[in-house]
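Why does residue order matter? Because the sequence determines the fold. Keep that principle in mind as you read this record.
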Amino acid sequence: MRGHHLVATFVALFLFLALSPAIRSQESAPPPPAPDNSAASDTDNDTVFRVNVDMVQLNVAVIDRKGNYVTGLRPSDFEIVEDTIPQKLATFEEGNQGPIMLVNPSQPGATPSASSVSDSRPGTTSGAPQISSAGANVFILFDTSNYMYRGFVYAQDAISDFVRSLDGTAKVAFYSYSRDVARDALLTSDRSQVLRGVRSTVAGADAALYNALLLVLRDAGQYTGRKVIVAFSNGPDNASMVPPEGVGELAQSQGIPIYMISTREAKQDPVSTAVFERISASTGGQAYFAKNWNEQQQAFASVREDLSHLYALSYYPQPNPNRGWRTITVKLIGEKLKNFHIRTRNGYRPRPTGFASDTPADTALAR
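Structure:
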């Protein structure tokens, strides 16, 4: 009976999260919001349905023809369209530099003028208040299933090196998974705490990657600022009770890029290969398939480089009647920039007003 109860819990949790992705940035571990009684009204038997979209955040990589990162771009170089509706940038940030506030949050429909734009880069004049930056929040997920018996220590070393190499402003959380998920280190700026979590892991049983990703997404959604998930998987998923498609859509809707790092064991499984590539591409991350442990370290280094070169853009959506999936298109303006490649998520689904982002059911996913 316990097994049937867990299955029902997993399915209920997945449906809840997939249907109500948290677009609103929230403080760490907030209490569930009170129901909004104004979200729906009944007038002449017509129901008014509203959705909650406070701010949409995008992590954008810009690459030239040679595969190099393009740096030094300005807010005016970017154009964002949601469905067919042009959007106005609210904040702009490059790499690990401080963010620039472009519009007053209390007036999301306002158009930023030249005098209202502030730039924190050297050699520029600051003409408006800037929002503070706490760095990126990096959530690492490590495969400790029985697929990992041969290269467990090497993987621990690669993850430890990655943690040490991250920018000092970043905060890191570390999770491990086999059939269950362990929160080995909650989000912290203390690298030694994370490294102790890495070294405490032991190889386990079957692999439930998508269950684990669902829980990490749930946790990451409780924090404000830039967030990314770096998942290491050494083989296919053979124990999850949620589909990868729903997990990928939830990550898109929350604006959290997923970087998938795996070895040739997963590459040999065409289903896993396709899923890893699809999830990473749709969320704005990347997938890596390392042939050996040296290439695995290079993959982690590549993720670190990507994080330090991403542009973080955000906007308050203009009125949009679409209550379903909204497509996001990011373009560069100008003849000199048109041949550059952009990598970011391609859309999101707004959540209905009144849905709480917290649920006690997630405790069934973690130990």
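The chain has two domains: 52-109+310-352, 137-309.
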